[in-house]
């Protein structure tokens, strides 16, 4: 019986490790999702897509900044209702639901404009416009998480209040730091206070390892944050060529980091440059599949 119990313990441990081992293979979508090559995004090995350029307005409306020539910024939630149009909703939902997709997680990435004001007044309650707008957007787009790309405000208390509000709605919360480890550690600790790790609301940290974050060491961020991170690399780009990384060079970087300290996965900033520069989604995706199976 002892051996039997041991076997079961061992098996369940293996299963648990296996469940945890599902690596994150991500890419930030800078280009308007109505214009990008969504077939390539769904079928190149990425499992996590993060739509960049979501902002909240002073009245709690939510806006999608499309960042693409010829595209219009659009208010996607207002007065507790989805207002972004059917085509956009169908496009975003299709990332996860199409039968040829490898994507199982959709996030939206935002800065922290107006978060502090709105958490102070009217607050994070379920009857506020902001809360209801995030409910409506989650339903319309089939979202899993909200990513915080705060690079300037760094107010811990309002960030935690906002993250907990999103957690009540059913979102996960993630960070995209390039600096300010102390801020991100405080937020991660307070948002997840009292929750077991499998139920953490702040369950991912995408770490910028390019441009302002070029000197970041994923291993040291992991040990200081108390959670595994997903390092991000900027693909080849003509705006800051010195920060651009080819697929081959990305493989070398990810492999080195992951050997020194096992990571949660890897990812890229961003799809717009892949398309503009005529790069291969497949090559960049294959790197992630290889290093983070
Ligand atoms: C989109 O990417 C796929 C590769 O996954 C490619 O075959 C196709 O030509 C691309 N479409 C456009 C419009 O560039
Ligand atoms: C998805 O399923 C539909 C209906 O079964 C089928 O027509 C289509 O070819 C499938 N697409 C892919 C990419 O498998
Ligand atoms: C994401 C990003 O900043 N991409 C830039 C790449 O370079 C071109 C200019 O050559 C910019 O227009 C893009 O914004």
UniProtKB/TrEMBL annotation:
Species name: Polyplosphaeria fusca
Signal peptide: 1-21
Protein name: Coagulation factor 5/8 type domain-containing protein
UniProt keywords, alphabetically: Signal
